[in-house]
Amino acid sequence: MRAARIRAAATVNGEFGGLGRRRLDAGEFIGRLRNVLPGGSWWRLEDEDAGGAGRADASGATAASALSRMWALVANDRWVIFAGFASLICAALAEIAIPHLLAASIFSAQNGGAVFYRNAKLLVVLCMISGVFSGVRSCCFGIANMILVKRMREMLFDSILSQDIAFFDEETVGDLTSRLGSDCQQVSRVIGNDLNLISRNLLQGIGALIYLLILSWPLGLCTMLTCGTLSTIMLVHGRYQKKASKFAQEFTASANNVAQEAISLVRTVRVYGTEKQEFKRYAKWLDKLYDVSFRQTMAYGGWSLSLNYLYHSTQLCVGCCCFDWRNSNHEWEVHC
């Protein structure tokens, strides 16, 4: 009997012990899940040991001041910017009108006649206008981008050469060359890519929203709700990407500094046999850069998920509208 009680107690203790371990594992899983979810500790960049990258936490210039400084650099060639924006407006207006004429051409295709051919001709003309002005827009913004990079690097290099000798004792060569190289190239994307896309999408979005409100106000309100939600998510995502980009720039500069020191003093490194130590120093900064880049990629994935989800949700709302074909006058009637 005593042996049976001992075996029973061992069995009960084993079961409850396993249950406790399962509860502990479930608690750890929930805790890790909370850290990975948006707003968790895994997304925080302040805890990174940036070393020389502590300056990444400093508040940078505002968007208005940055744009004003960029405009000062390209002000002598302002005609390129004006031509780019004029082409952007023409291309956006043409792309807004294309869906309307495309739908009108499809609806009048069965009847044929002068109405169909007129809509088809206008559709071809608008497609040509959109293609031509889109090419001119990309060309103008690309030229402005090259001008900005050139003058920014000239100004930065001139400013570096005019500094006191004490400045070069505090700053490393790898950090300065990284500012001249990758940082200037990354800033130049504001005109060549960001400003171009933001202006085009904003103009097309406003035009399409006005058209939707005129066509069907419930559909327009649904689209406004989706756009408002996407704007909020975009602001949060943009702020996180801005902070992560600062850390990535600092880590890249630190890695370049280590590589330049090791290569320039390669004879000394070989004499003392510190190749592995230098490799570990370089790999440490690359690991930090990988961590930040991985978080940036995950944040972009979340933004893409939200965009596609809300976009298809809007399509679902449009699909819920009942389209009734009138046999008498062959028009579309929308009942929501």
UniProtKB/TrEMBL annotation:
<feature type="domain" description="ABC transmembrane type-1">
    <location>
        <begin position="82"/>
        <end position="318"/>
    </location>
</feature>
<dbReference type="GO" id="GO:0015421">
    <property type="term" value="F:ABC-type oligopeptide transporter activity"/>
</dbReference>
<protein>
    <recommendedName>
        <fullName>ABC transmembrane type-1 domain-containing protein</fullName>
    </recommendedName>
</protein>
<keyword id="KW-0472">Membrane</keyword>
<keyword id="KW-0812">Transmembrane</keyword>
<feature type="transmembrane region" description="Helical">
    <location>
        <begin position="122"/>
        <end position="148"/>
    </location>
</feature>
<dbReference type="InterPro" id="IPR036640">
    <property type="entry name" value="ABC1_TM_sf"/>
</dbReference>
<feature type="transmembrane region" description="Helical">
    <location>
        <begin position="79"/>
        <end position="102"/>
    </location>
</feature>
<dbReference type="GO" id="GO:0005524">
    <property type="term" value="F:ATP binding"/>
</dbReference>
<dbReference type="Pfam" id="PF00664">
    <property type="entry name" value="ABC_membrane"/>
</dbReference>
<keyword id="KW-1133">Transmembrane helix</keyword>
<dbReference type="GO" id="GO:0016020">
    <property type="term" value="C:membrane"/>
</dbReference>
<dbReference type="InterPro" id="IPR011527">
    <property type="entry name" value="ABC1_TM_dom"/>
</dbReference>
<feature type="transmembrane region" description="Helical">
    <location>
        <begin position="209"/>
        <end position="236"/>
    </location>
</feature>
<dbReference type="InterPro" id="IPR039421">
    <property type="entry name" value="Type_1_exporter"/>
</dbReference>
